[in-house]
Structure prediction request, 492 residues.
Amino acid sequence: MTAPLIRIRDLTKSFGITPVLRGVSFDVNKGEAIGIIGPSGSGKSTILRCINALVPFDSGSIHVGEVDVGAPNLDRIALRRRVGMVFQQYNLFPHRTALQNVMMAPVQVLKQNKAEVEVRARALMRKVRLEGKEGAFPGELSGGQQQRVAIARSLCMQPEVMLFDEVTAALDPETVKEVLVTIRELAEEGMTCLIVTHEMAFARDVADHVYFTDSGIIVEHGDPKTLFSAPTHERTKAFLERVL
Amino acid sequence: MDVVADFFRTLNATTGWNFSIFHDAFDARRFWSAFWVTVQLAGISVLFSVIIGIAGAFVQSMRFAPLRWLINGYIAFFRNTPPLVQMYFFFFALGAITPTARDDIGMDVPIVSSFVWALVALSFFAGAFNVEIFRSGIEAIPRATVEAAESLGYSKLKAYIFIILPLAFRICLPSLNNNLVNLIKTTTLAYAIGVPEMLYVANQIWSDTLNVVEMMNVLLILYIGLVSLLVWMMHRWEKAMRMPGYGA
Prediction:
């Protein structure tokens, strides 16, 4: 068995005096799809934000491949090249078209050849089923379409891992599906995915492994079928009863 | 050209309205060269004040506190003092300690001309306001948009150049517009330190030719024209940078 792609050990993080993560450890292997579920404020999003160094953590360690995320001289660009992230609010750049949004970072950050990036970006636009919308500005797209552009934008950096932070939470129910289909395809193609979600059915179907977090710790984890049908922990039971 | 000159000469003869800058070669030459000085003064100080605004707003967003204090001090100084006093300060106080050179006829002339001092004073004056204008634009950008840039590997500087600044520009363009209009009108203060700009020369002309009312009207119309040109260009720019479907 090869070394895990992401390795998290005893991760803690407080915002002021409020502890958000109180010792979280887990591994993610290459090609795995991980679902992270749990009540609001349980620290799910913070785990993702720590992994790509958007927020510093207090103690413990995170390794992505050989990159030590906690290192003081962390090469953020190298880290973020390997780790793509998609946000709840899409956060597209509103002054650029959909295609330009997808192309910007590889051209401006990685200094890749513009023509080659464009070929890749157009292929990604097709992959997320937005062929024909290349010239549209984010403000002219629906929430679901914007979110799929955001996924294509992350993929164009050719990351090894994708982090999805409640990517359907801001969408109306009808467009949730089109985004989830895109993520499911990615996972099935073997992209390593960490998916923080409130869509329990989606976590059950797509994830290889599900973690249930509450008040900053991992309460329970396992393969989705077992965890959803026969949770062993009281808190998991209570949570699943509320949401299912 | 002769048709225009003849018309104004006849106008002068029949009504007494003396627009000497249109039919008197000497007045015409000095007035239009003054017009050109005003255009240069306005154009260059608009450019420099915007550069100061962009750079100052970036420095203000940095973590290193002493640099932030420096910018805040600069803004406080230039916002809390009258521009005419600043103009005098640059020309008389700083002008007195800058080196001079000996010219052809053996006179000591300052290396930095009154035109350059006016340019410096105007640029710093409007620049201080521009820093605050750009800051308001930058602060209006959602934190999440900046995070998205960070997560795509943008460094602070690159995010500023490619994402934050273009968005901030679009947000703060109306107030930038206001400040630049003000700047064009403030160029008339260069009169006080002897820069031969439009107001200065118009004053000389009406002293010589005794056509105060006529020159006043000419001045007003030309300033309306200059400011309208700026506003027109800024509006075109605003349109070109419009973000379809955003906030509309």
About this structure: The longest strand of chain B covers residues 100-102. The mean pLDDT of chain B is 91.
